[in-house]
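Page 42, continued from yesterday. The earlier attempt failed because a stray header line got pasted into the input along with the sequence. Redoing it now with the clean sequence only.
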Amino acid sequence: MTWTSLDPSTPLRGLPLACIDTETTGKDPAEARVVEVAVVHAVLGVDPAATAFRSYVQPGIPMPADASRITGIDDATVAGA
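This time it went through. C-alpha cells are written below.
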C-alpha cells in the first residue's frame, strides 16, 4: 500500500493514523504561542492510541492563568524547554 494510491473504498479500520496535537498560551492565533506538541499514533480499530512524541516548548512569555488552568501546563513545566 502506498499513501499516494489509497483506494477511496478502503475501510479505515486497520489503517495507521497519526494525529498532531498542540497546546497554546491562548485562543487568538495572532497572539497565542505553542507550549506543547504531541503526536499520537494508532491503528484504527486495532490498537489503543499511544503517544509517539511529546515535547514542551518555551513560549517566551509567561503562561496565562487561563491557559494553565485548561492545559495543566504552567511556567515551571516549560521552564527547561
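Notes: Strands lie at 16-24, 34-43, 50-56.
Reminder to self: strip header lines before submitting.
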